[in-house]
Model the fold of this input.
Amino acid sequence: MNSLEITKRMVYDQVLNYVHLSEQMIESEQGNIFQYAKELQLQSIPRHLTSVHVIDCIGNNKQINNTALAERMNLSKANITKISTRLLEEGFIKRSQLNDNKKEIYFSLTAKGRQIFELHEQLHKLEEERFMQLLEPFAEAELHVILRFLQNVSSHWANKETE
Done:
């Protein structure tokens, strides 16, 4: 194998390692949310991280509907309907309609949902600070290469899902 092929193999191996570590990080994030929720004496918390992210999206977008949620989260409308139904039943979100449009349903957070939103926001701020520190040693040109690579990987994986 030549130098280029060896380097490509090393990049591939690191991407696989990243995927495995990413799975562990997601589990850890969910564990952190449960731990902090317990410390804050929150009565309940959604069981799935995607549900927490739906709460986050609703919290960041006043009066958002099913279609906009699906678009912003890159999930199907059916998936959002399933998640939002569960979140409604568990009391994390509520439905509303505008006076001039009774057909359209909008979501907003309940007090219970707002607690999860704020907790999740705090954890994300901590994680973002750690990640920004990780990027400190890189020059702007290097960051552009990393960004382009990650965009290509994301695009490749997104296209693979639709095949």
